[in-house]
Amino acid sequence: MARKKKPAARKAKKKTPKRFRFQLGLTGVAGIAVVAFCLFLWMFLLGIWAGQTILLPSVPSGKSKASHAVHADRSPIKILRPDGRKSPVSPKKKPVSQ
Question: pTM here?
Answer without folding.
Answer: 0.40
